[in-house]
Structures are given as structure tokens and as C-alpha cells.
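> forwarded from #structure-qc
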């Protein structure tokens, strides 16, 4: 493999930042708040620690058989029939999860930006964009995330500086009023929802990453920075709105952004800042489509072709239409089998290497 086809470890770490926050605006924030209330900040801290365990699992699988992607590793580690079942399950679950993200991302855009437009045209436009990006390959997706990350940093700095003026620490109290089980439950949900999408990146063989000795450092740094960012977001939203108001609003993160103005004369820039939330879902869907394309190639032993991305894109769009009643807690039950399959892969890949 020539060096031109290799992927920057920094680019993958940028992409991981968006994957970590796949579910943030479409339900994770509200779910943790509903479970842990004021103690949500402790759930985020504890969940970030638990999440490191999953990140280490990702690194372990990534380091083994470095020339192979996730599907090739499964085929090499299990009997043929079991490997096909595992690959099929992973494809199916990530299709359902991506459909859920697409539906809720379309709903978010409709609610905040295009409330006069039906969510179906929004979903079609998103899928077409993701399919196009996926057809260009994982290298292009990581480069796109590099562009998005600088926009994200700019938007985050603006929002944080502006919102600090409205923060009232009194609203954070009282703390530790919930049962420890609630904090623990919230932390488990947070770690699963934040880190499981990272396993999509196992579609990239480690050998395809240039300077892969720096890879782990960049990825851990991205994880820590993201965890700190999410923690600050929880603290700011609760300290501005109070826990009662935060608990009943659909998108409290967006509501607080309505307070932001630029240079005291440009108003309603929350519409611009809210784009930072759309990057997460958009890139996650794009990576998932690429992942599923590779899974289809592996499962059915067909010749690789970029046009295959149309198939998962179309399936994701169709299924998203019927997911209006699906809750985020149900999605967690779809994420658990993904983690279980990777756990078994950790056990069996060890014996093969």
C-alpha cells in the first residue's frame, strides 16, 4: 500500500470526536438529565471513566491483525458460519442505529431551522450527502471531519464565552441528592452511547494509518477533550436554566444558545451555532454507510465498488421513516450486542495471534 493511500491519525482522531457525540443532541443529554438530575455531572464524569475501558477494547482489537479491517478480523477469528452471523448482525444493528440518528437529526433540523418543511425531504438530502461523501472513501470522510473540527472549535468558543455570563452556580445545587444507582445508571448509558460508535473506525486497518505509533495518543486526547467539553456543556445548561426547566425542554442546549449574540448587535446566531450538533450525526451516518458497504462486500464476497454505498443509504432512509416511536433506551439494547460481539472477538483474536 503506497503512502498516498494512508490516513492521517490526526484526521481519525478528529472524526472520533464527532462519533463520540453521535447521540448527544438527539437524546443523550435529555436521557442523562432525566435519570440523574443535578447529579448528571457525576454521571458524565463516571461515564467518561467507564468509557475509557471501551476505548481500550477498541485499541486492543485495532492492534491485532493490523493489516485487516473488522470484517476480515472476524472472518479470520471465527468459523465461517459464525463469522457470517456476526457480520450480518453488525450490519443490521448499525443500519438500525444509523436510521435512528437520521430520523432524529432530521427532526432536530426541522425543529430548529426548517420548521416549515417535512422531515422526509430533510432526511433525503442528508442521506444523499452522506452517500456521496461515503463513496469518496474513508480518507475523504476524515478530511471532511478535519474541516468540521475547526468550524466546531470556533462555534464552541463563541458559545462558551457568551454563555458564561448567564451561568448561575446556585442552579447546580443541591448535589448528591439522587441515589447512587441513578448516577451509576446514567454513567453506564453515557459510556455506551458515547463510545460504541467509535467501533465503526475498526473498518480502517491499522496499517492504513500513517505514523500509527501516534494514533493511540491522538485518540485518547480526543476522547478526554470531548469528555471535558460534554461535562462543561452539562454544567452550563443546568446552571443557566436550572434542573426543572432543563428536564422538560426538548433541546435545552439550543434554548440556552438563544441568549448568545455577537458583538451585542447580531442576534439569533443560535441557528448558526446549532450546526455544530449536526456535524456529529452527519459524519456518523457517512461512516456507517461506508462501514456497511464494506460489510456487504465481506458478507456476500462481491467485487468492491463505490456505488454499493447507495444500498445502505437507501435502506437507512426507508427504515428511518418508521422509527418515530423508538426511544434512546431501546437503542442502547441495540448497542449492547455490538459490544458483546467485539468482546468475543477480543477473546478469539487473542488465540489467533
Amino acid at each position: 500500500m503506497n503512502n498516498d493511500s494512508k490516513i492521517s491519525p490526526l484526521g481519525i482522531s478528529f472524526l472520533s470526536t464527532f462519533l463520540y457525540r453521535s447521540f448527544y443532541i438527539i437524546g443523550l443529554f435529555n436521557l442523562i438529565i432525566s435519570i440523574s438530575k443535578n447529579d448528571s455531572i457525576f454521571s458524565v464524569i463516571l461515564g467518561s471513566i467507564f468509557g475509557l475501558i471501551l476505548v481500550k477494547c477498541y485499541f486492543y482489537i485495532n492492534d491485532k491483525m493490523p493489516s485487516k479491517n473488522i470484517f476480515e478480523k472476524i472472518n479470520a477469528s471465527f468459523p465461517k458460519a459464525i463469522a457470517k452471523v456476526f457480520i450480518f448482525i453488525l450490519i443490521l444493528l448499525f443500519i438500525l442505529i444509523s436510521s435512528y440518528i437520521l430520523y432524529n437529526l432530521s427532526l432536530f433540523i426541522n425543529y430548529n431551522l426548517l420548521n416549515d418543511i417535512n422531515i422526509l425531504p430533510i432526511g433525503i438530502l442528508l442521506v444523499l450527502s452522506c452517500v456521496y461523501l461515503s463513496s469518496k472513501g474513508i480518507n475523504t470522510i476524515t478530511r471532511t471531519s478535519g474541516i468540521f473540527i475547526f468550524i466546531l472549535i470556533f462555534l464552541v468558543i463563541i458559545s462558551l464565552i457568551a454563555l458564561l455570563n448567564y451561568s448561575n452556580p446556585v442552579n447546580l445545587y443541591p448535589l448528591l441528592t439522587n441515589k447512587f444507582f441513578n448516577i451509576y445508571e446514567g454513567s453506564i448509558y453515557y459510556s455506551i452511547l458515547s463510545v460504541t460508535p467509535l467501533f465503526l473506525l475498526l473498518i480502517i486497518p491499522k496499517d492504513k494509518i500513517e505514523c500509527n505509533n501516534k494514533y493511540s495518543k491522538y485518540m485518547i486526547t480526543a476522547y478526554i477533550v470531548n469528555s471535558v467539553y460534554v461535562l462543561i456543556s452539562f454544567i452550563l445548561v443546568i446552571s443557566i436554566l436550572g434542573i426543572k426547566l432543563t428536564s422538560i425542554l426538548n433541546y435545552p442546549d439550543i434554548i440556552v444558545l438563544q441568549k448568545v449574540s455577537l458583538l451585542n448587535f447580531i442576534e439569533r446566531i443560535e441557528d448558526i451555532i446549532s450546526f455544530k450538533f449536526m456535524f456529529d450525526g452527519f459524519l456518523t451516518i457517512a461512516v456507517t454507510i461506508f462501514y456497511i458497504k464494506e460489510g456487504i462486500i465481506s458478507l456476500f464476497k462481491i467485487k468492491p465498488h463505490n456505488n454499493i454505498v447507495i444500498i445502505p443509504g437507501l435502506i437507512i432512509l426507508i427504515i428511518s421513516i418508521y422509527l418515530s416511536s423508538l426511544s434512546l433506551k431501546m437503542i442502547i439494547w441495540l448497542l449492547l450486542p455490538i459490544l458483546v460481539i467485539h468482546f468475543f472477538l477480543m477473546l478469539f483474536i487473542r488465540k489467533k495471534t
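QC bot note: The chain has a mean pLDDT of 88. The CA atoms of residues 77 and 352 lie 6 Å apart.
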